[in-house]
Specification:
Blueprint lengths: L9 H23 L3 H4 L15 E4 L3 E2 L7 H16 L5 E2 L2 H4 L10 H8 L3 E10 L2 E10 L5 E10 L3 H15 L10
Parallel strand pairs: 1-3, 1-4, 2-4
Antiparallel strand pairs: 4-5, 5-6
Helix pairs in contact: 3-6
Amino acid sequence: MAKSGGIGPLIPVAVTGVMFAVVLGIFFGSQSDPDPIAEDVDVTAIEPDEPIGPAIAVLPFLIRANSSIAPGVADNLADQITKNLMEAEGLTVSPKDQVAVYENGVRPSLGEMSYDLRVRYIFQAIIYGEDNEIRVDARLDDGMTGYTLWTGSYWAERVTLFDLHTEISNSILNEIGMADAAPAN
């Protein structure tokens, strides 16, 4: 006579129980242990795409039609303003070769220029005059908002251009809250 019962019918139940315990252990074990890969990421090593702190582009000056201003005078004034702003601690200034694409006067929207040059502030000016007198109509815009932050008109004689570019540079720094960063004259 054969024995009834035995271990045979209990094996599938035991295997199912062990598998269930393993699955629960994996599930609850993964909940309590932090991901070891995520712990190894060094977030301080990630460099930002944008410059740190404020950034500005001084666009090439436009010369008003019917003006006797030589292109060299406009270029020199823009270069001197750029140089002054580069000396301000904490301010990033777009180099001349990056803004040169806007020399022809055809300019996209402020937002597009701000994005292309990776700056927040856009400074642009129109220069004109006769003989020894020069007038500069200047404008500082926030490329992120599209708002004009400041406008100014300046008259000068060619012999006082140094004073003019210093005055304009200081006005820009004052408007963006960096008056203390102005270079010493």
